[in-house]
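Re: export button greyed out
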Amino acid sequence: MDKITVERLSFFYGAKRALTDVSIGIPERQITALIGPSGCGKSTFLRCLNRMNDTIRGARVEGRVLLDGQDIYAADADVVALRSRVGMVFQRPNPFPQTIFDNIAFGPRVLGLASNGSLADTVERSLRDVHLWDEVKDNLKQDALSLSLGQQQRLCIARVIAVKPEVILMDEPCSALDPIATLKVEDLMRELSQNYTIVIVTHNMQQAARASDMTAMMMLTDDKKSGTIIEVGPARRIFTRPSDPRTEGYVTGRYG
Amino acid sequence: MTPTRAHFTQQLAQLTEDVLHLGSMAHHAYRQSLQALAARDADLAREVIAADPAMNRMRYDVEAECYTLLATEQPVAGDLRAIVAALTVAQDLERIGDHGKKIARISIRMQQEPKSIHQVDALYKQTFNVVLSYMVERPRWIGAGTQLLQAMHEMERVADRATNVAERVIYSVTGELIDLNA
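Workaround output, generated via the alternate export path:
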């Protein structure tokens, strides 16, 4: 069952075309990894999935992105509601310069999801879900920026799940983390995928091989002007017998 | 886009070369063992037996190369298949060498058979039933016939090993594991 269906999506920054005819089904409660060389449009594509590109002047899309069958680019689509359903984690951990508690409570407060009593429950549950609770439960009033980078990134994931999204987009969530913190985030992704649909952009091929169920390979089109998806399949197939020679060249590290 | 991983590519080429070298050693040993059997050439048979330890070492060298590449290069896709295929192919090739050694031993044992046994030489290419009927008709050939049946069994095993190698080559190239005996 696909949570998100992308049909012939093209994306433009003004006159410049960045994505051409991207089509993919993103299965519900699975981890889908987007891989491909730098500049092929992976992050641009990821940001199309919760309309993060809308704020860019001249941004324009063609084609459709369906979330549970509803076009998120429809004229009457509610972008704020969309972003609470489709959360995002970024490359560098970006906690607000506030306490650990307030970071997690921010979303539920803004969206009016929780009264004060249940707010504490939401904060605890979110921190437990990312295995951060035991590390920070006695320091909830502490500045979130005092945490290690790995802890900050898990805090950011907790901040996303505090508003009970359905999809979590991750743009190279481990690129600023050490190997152990990276493996912790990967384990966490695996657990979260039982309840959430996860789409991750990664430059780390071993991470895509280890941590994704589905892997989509992106490349520049033949005219080198925009990116597209050239092959999608279960990770175990993409990393043992890809069918497109360009995928083979990229995953084996021969080109890219 | 520029080609990368030159060192790894070179190590994979070396691995392929080592497997091919092991293959030619096994091929040579097997052919010599058949010659020794046909010609009752004990010297040649002893040569085959003496060559076996080198093949065993070569096989373990290939295995060590494979483990090192798996541990250090994190190979995927075609690279992974080539290394996994090399691991199993090296084992089959070494075993082909073992079958050659067994045939060589049989040919040495047949030195002790009565002289007239040499008439049976032409038979080893023929089928099990032919050998069996010779033994039934001429009881004094039972000893030699039994040795030949054993040798034929070794040859059959070599054919099985060769099939395994062929299956692994197909796997390495296409990613599909198929049973060629099916």
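The longest helix of chain B spans residues 6-39. The button fix ships in the next patch.
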